[in-house]
Amino acid sequence: MRRLNRKKTLNLVKELDAFPKVPQSYVETSASGGTVSLIAFTTMALLTIMEFSVYQDTWMKYEYEVDKDFSSKLRINIDITVAMKCQYVGADVLDVAETMVASADGLVYEPAIFDLSPQQKEWQRMLQLIQSRLQEEHSLQDVIFKSAFKSASTALPPREANSSQSPDACRIHGHLYVNKVAGNFHITVGKAIPHPRGHAHLAALVNHDSYNFSHRIDHLSFGELVPGIINPLDGTEKIAVDHNQMFQYFITVVPTKLHTYKISADTHQFSVTERERIINHAAGSHGVSGIFMKYDLSSLMVTVTEEHMPFWQFFVRLCGIVGGIFSTTGMLHGIGKFIVEIICCRFRLGAYKPVHSVPCEDGHTDNHLPLLENSTH
């Protein structure tokens, strides 16, 4: 009884077989079918290799939300060289809340040589070339994000030892922590001193002819310092054509959370607009000579996440490639074979001439073929 039930179950399962097997004796092969199979296997191999390369690659996903963190401090990373001696210039930050951040909190004044060495000029040239490409091809920013902590350092290489040339400039570098409100970081003549109505700079003791605000921005960033990231003002160099010249940078800072397979950092991106003009009070161009960086924070926060294709999606796409090519090539081969058979059948039918009817004496027609007469007598 059990064997009978087992046989019934097996027969039922066999009837549900969606992949019936054809006996080998019924299978007919052809040259056209072999050619199509070869093309199909080659196409499948190429598409599989391409799909595997896509599976290995990653992409950056951008998400936007309102930045709700206004209580924390914003870090400003600075490395600027000004073509004036350190005792003549001062740097500080003043925000819209009239809060002054003294430069002694994190900035270092270091005597330096303004002209770059050949190695440093080559570094600057390459950095400016990268900046120009980034402005034309915005997708390169994704490559920079993925190469953070992996690429070569973007810092200016040290100068070769040369004792014959004395320092003629001041390198101001370090970092500051400011409130997350709009502010103004500036470098101008004289050291900054606090004032009841804001702040002031001791510029009266500096000779006006020594004013020279030619400068080079080796690095300027906001937030956590991430090696390998190139910022919009890195490598910028400006040469002053007049003693009374003002350089202005209007910066919009966007909080950014970066999550890749190598790092996870809270940093900031920013866009910048540059402007420079000569101070001439008689012509109506008022202001103070110096370098002014006016920054403002965006209310939106960007989350940049590196994503990878999951294995199940890769497997489904691979099955789709194999099954789709098998089905498509089989269908095209069947259609092509059908068309060829129709054309060949027409040619074969055209080779036979129609048989004419033979009239009989009684008025009827004889459609039968005449008998062949014996030619032998």
UniProtKB/TrEMBL annotation:
Question: Does the record bear Translocase in its keywords?
Answer: no
Q: Does the keyword Transferase apply?
A: no
What protein name does the entry list? Endoplasmic reticulum-Golgi intermediate compartment protein
Q: Which species is this record about?
A: Cavia porcellus (Guinea pig)
Chain ranges of the Endoplasmic reticulum vesicle transporter C-terminal domain: 162-331
The gene name on file is ERGIC2
Predominant subcellular localization, coarse grouping: endoplasmic reticulum
Q: What does this protein do?
A: Plays a role in transport between endoplasmic reticulum and Golgi.
Which cell locations does it reside in?
Answer: Endoplasmic reticulum membrane; Endoplasmic reticulum-Golgi intermediate compartment membrane; Golgi apparatus membrane
Tell me how this protein sits in the membrane: Multi-pass membrane protein
